[in-house]
Specification:
alpha+beta, single chain, two-stranded antiparallel sheet, four-stranded mixed β-sheet, 23% strand
Length: 132
């Protein structure tokens, strides 16, 4: 995942724009080094991910940012979003930060193949075992 995906579409609702009141797209946060796509194993926590991001200081000097949107391609665990959101709120505590995601990873339901009848049979069996 690259920061261009995460924050190149971070935008402020009050900004100089060709259309009054229209949001302006800003690269508010930049990724320091490229990262590999996660393929399994241990995911990095938001605090670890933050070390690879930095603010575009020139854009921060641009004025008030009452709302900032973070755009990302896929929401999996939310670690990258949390890292970026926390960074923004530390520097701009009065800013409303929201996320926009193109897709969300579907996590399989471990109980999808279990019916109520299966649970009732199992519960009855356990109760009988405990009663004897």
């Amino acid at each position: 995942m690259s920061i261009t995906t995460i924050a190149s579409a971070a935008f402020a609702t009050e900004s100089v724009s060709l259309v009054p009141g229209a949001p302006q797209v800003l690269e508010l946060i930049e990724q320091i080094t490229s990262t590999e796509t996660f393929k399994g194993g241990n995911r990095k926590k938001p605090d670890e991910l933050r070390q690879n991001y930095r603010f575009n200081e020139q854009l921060l000097r641009g004025g008030v940012h009452p709302s900032i949107g973070i755009v990302d391609d896929v929401l999996t665990t939310g670690s990258h979003f949390r890292a970026i959101k926390d960074m923004i709120l530390e520097r701009l505590p009065d800013t409303k930060v929201v996320g926009f995601f193109i897709a969300r990873r579907v996590i399989p339901d471990p109980f999808d193949s279990v019916s109520i009848e299966d649970l009732q049979v199992r519960l009855t069996s356990v109760c009988r075992e405990n009663a004897s």
